[in-house]
Amino acid sequence: xxxxxxxxxxxxxxxxxxxxxxxxxxxxxxxxxxxxxxxxxxxxxxxxxxxxxxxxxxxxxxxxxxxxxxxxxxxxxxxxxxxxxxxxxxxxxxxxxxxxxxxxxxxxxxxxxxxxxxxxxxxxxxxxxxxxxxxxxxxxxxxxxxxxxxxxxxxxxxxxxxxxxxxxxxxxxxxxxxxxxxxxxxxxxxxxxxxxxxxxxxxxxxxxxxxxxxxxxxxxxxxxxxxxxxxxxxxxxxxxxxxxxxxxxxxxxxxxxxxxxxxxxxxxxxxxxxxxxxxxxxxxxxxxxxxxxxxxxxxxxxxx
Amino acid sequence: xxxxxxxxxxxxxxxxxxxxxxxxxxxxxxxxxxxxxxxxxxxxxxxxxxxxxxxxxxxxxxxxxxxxxxxxxxxxxxxxxxxxxxxxxxxxxxxxxxxxxxxxxxxxxxxxxxxxxxxxxxxxxxxxxxxxxxxxxxxxxxxxxxxxxxxxxxxxxxxxxxxxxxxxxxxxxxxxxxxxxxxxxxxxxxxxxxxxxxxxxxxxxxxxxxxxxxxxxxxxxxxxxxxxxxxxxx
Amino acid sequence: xxxxxxxxxxxxxxxxxxxxxxxxxxxxxxxxxxxxxxxxxxxxxxxxxxxxxxxxxxxxxxxxxxxxxxxxxxxxxxxxxxxxxxxxxxxxxxxxxxxxxxxxxxxxxxxxxxxxxxxxxxxxxxxxxxxxxxxxxxxxxxxxxxxxxxxxxxxxxxxxxxxxxxxxxxxxxxxxxxxxxxxxxxxxxxxxxxxxxxxxxxxxxxxxxxxxxxxxxxxxxxxxxxxxxxxxxxxxxxxxxxxxxxxxxxxxxxxxxxxxxxxxxxxxxxxxx
Amino acid sequence: xxxxxxxxxxxxxxxxxxxxxxxxxxxxxxxxxxxxxxxxxxxxxxxxxxxxxxxxxxxxxxxxxxxxxxxxxxxxxxxxxxxxxxxxxxxxxxxxxxxxxxxxxxxxxxxxxxxxxxxxxxxxxxxxxxxxxxxxxxxxxxxxxxxxxxxxxxxxxxxxxxxxxxxxxxxxxxxxxxxxxxxxxxxxxxxxxxxxxxxxxxxxxxxxxxxxxxxxxxxxxxxxxxxxxxxxxxxxxxxxxxxxxxxxxxxxxxxxxxxxxxxxxxxxxxxxxxxxxxxxxxxxxx
Lengths: 304, 234, 273, 286
What we know:
The complex is a heterotetramer of chains A (304), B (234), C (273) and D (286).
Chain A: H1 2-31, H2 39-54, H3 69-91, H4 96-116, H5 118-121, H6 135-158, H7 160-170, H8 172-177, H9 182-208, H10 218-232, H11 237-260, H12 266-287
Helix pairs in contact in A: 1-6, 1-9, 1-10, 1-11, 2-3, 2-4, 2-9, 2-10, 3-9, 6-7, 6-9, 7-9, 10-11, 10-12, 11-12
Chain C: E1 12-23, E2 26-37, E3 41-45, H1 52-59, E4 67-72, E5 75-76, H2 82-87, E6 90-92, H3 105-110, H4 121-126, H5 128-148, H6 164-176, E7 182-186, H7 194-211, E8 214-218, H8 222-228, E9 232-236, E10 239-244, H9 246-251, H10 253-260, H11 263-269
Parallel strand pairs in C: 3-8, 3-9, 6-7, 7-8
Antiparallel strand pairs in C: 1-2, 1-4, 4-5, 9-10
Helix pairs in contact in C: 6-7
Chain D: H1 2-31, H2 38-56, H3 60-81, H4 91-113, E1 128-130, E2 133-135, H5 137-159, H6 161-171, H7 173-178, H8 183-208, H9 215-229, H10 235-252, H11 261-275
Helix pairs in contact in D: 1-5, 1-6, 1-8, 1-9, 1-10, 2-3, 2-4, 2-8, 2-9, 3-8, 5-6, 5-8, 6-8, 9-10, 9-11, 10-11
């Protein structure tokens, strides 16, 4: 019973981190139509920033600041935001597919840096000894973070800002003709979403107590977040939450099944899990492209 | 029996209907012109014949066969050749390659048609190895019509072939249309230059709001006060 | 300024001076000169391909001319980006109505005024009171516009579901959400049924007379032009061919030539009227 | 001398980039979306050849044509099951679906062959030495064969009826239909060519390095960078793009750690986009 509760707390905490990633992506893709397939870059930068800032001194990597967790959260968001600003300034005035290519390139570069710049990140061995609260404390922290994030993005969506970024998504030319600075709105949405992804990274670092480059491979850093948002319902924040918990739940269940498989088939089992997620994405696109909870029609402040 | 008949055709792009009941016929060897204000559905009616538009009601019959909703390449296979108003050439293909694409469905030798097109439009001969995208508007129109002729069409569909052309070019295009027609090709023509078009046509139709408004011989329509009003406000 | 004073006004609000524009090898605009009088409803007519929409693109800052100037309210605005021109009181619509398909009619209207306090992300999230106050004013205006244009039944529908004519009305509604000085309408009458057309012309006339907007309108429907516009500017082949009241333009030989085509071919077959 | 050697290696990489980028560009021109699974199609081709080598006990050169055919068939099958049904939607949806396909393909390979490095034939081949330069026979074959294949493709697009139809459809799909071109057939041909070239690139790259489930993924950015530099949708431009990316990547190893090779391609592409958003080898149109 106790272990079941323990698993429940573990599961919800992990899913909560992905929920924040999915909400961040929703701001970018769901509201604004920005095709970011380099989520892993912002996730990883957030995680490593928090790790470096909060760990005790180590000869293996940059660090020794020993700052409190909250400082890690704030700086992680800032660093992710600055990175997004730089990439956004370059690509957001170009065609939409260029942001896709640039963001995935960024994710690859970040991964290469994490792997190879040992002075900074301790390379493939990763950063250990990141402060780890008890699982219950962490559960509370994640819960608060998810709620605050949800509140923020939902308020943004219902505001005139949310209305204008949707207009930018729908009809760039008309938005221009109505005097909207299209590039500025895109940039804001991109930076906002990326900062949330940085926060998710910082949470992840404290959740695991360890960060290494593998966690930020395209599958877990980017792709699964897309599946969550598309399956849940792009444009809808509740959809993003539902998608995150559902897809992560599915993944966790298959992970449990995989433990029953003899160890010599471990590779096959984990590959099969990813294939399953891929098939899920394709099936959703083919049969329910608007997701489980479609974008709601009524927006704007006031009673709803 | 007429070669082409549209019977109360309704339809349009996506969800919205542009055609609200268009009926017209083209007889064997005839030139028929469709005129009307912008947005009246002239081009859409023509595209409905080629299968590029969703037809939601009515019937389209060509040479006794129902071709409503047929695939676009299947319509071309019946030698119904369509020349769109804009984007009517393959810009990165050479003039000669554009003409070859017109003969795509033919398995026999089409050297004779190639020569005939160059006879009809002499300026193209010198430019045969140039990409069509580098040509002027008038020359593009010649390539576009030439492409359609390569298939030895039974019916030629021309969508505003003189739009944006200078008067000199316009006159020449209209003369060529008559020349093509004299070889036995039926022509359905959508035009803004109503007077010239009606001048060469056996019959004409006036469409308004996706419906037939008037029909009759070219001379009759030219003399009609309402038709005149539509184009010059009286 | 109201409609009664139109065309008599001494200083034109919009001046297009020697605009040239080339696409590839083709000269789409070949030295266009025209003036739009303050408070007028000016028509821009001409055969397809004459360069009318291209000229709109240049005036509204979507296209950069290779030569020439655009002067708005006495200031040279050539090459300014669309948002900057909007801020100076210029609004344009598109030939194919450019509505925000997956947004409601109301939201389509509400997004227009600007800059809005609530468009600042931080203000929007954290200072809701100021935003709400402003929003309330926009909503009232939007509701008036919806009532004016009889769009109430489709107020909460996605704009993508509207008919072509309703989209045209919505575009006009977006104009009404601004305090623009000059409005460029690209074929407001195309694809609009007669009932809506009347609504549309009435609206344009009232907006001109009561709200003080100046209109420059591309239109093919000559009934609409004759009923609504004065003066009429005729373009052909990238140039201005004639301008003046409808009657004088109609009588102009060059215009008849451009519109009806050269008489020679036609006259060989039938005698013209 | 180091520079000349780096250029030589750069040419090998360019050849492989060109084989992939031409496919990406062709698919973009005709199907109008960025095919994200192209890298994993490359991987699939490489491993299919391995399967033929191990099962049939034949040389990799005999296995190559089999791998090419099966990969082309797989590409058509995926199009039939997934992409065909999404053609009426927006390009991003197709792109996203191809991301799904990419992960499925890669993990099928991973599940079947495992994560370890594999080679077609065990043993070390010593490079030939001349004038202080090192080059293996295989590498020479890669360069020559790539040039031959791409010239062949160029001729195919220029001379054959279906090749011209492909260019026509890339220019204007509706006008192609109106001309009587069976656009479904053109789409099938596009996948055949794209798949065949991808499989070849995979076998070549595996010959030059080793087999690895992320082999194609690691090349994918290079394909896109080359295709974009060449002006996406213009297959022959992609060749020039591949040369630039391949050479720049190898030359960068002279002053940067080699692990950043792929990052160089990416940074270079971004730099070019800033200066000329349409790609350097694309003619300015419109």
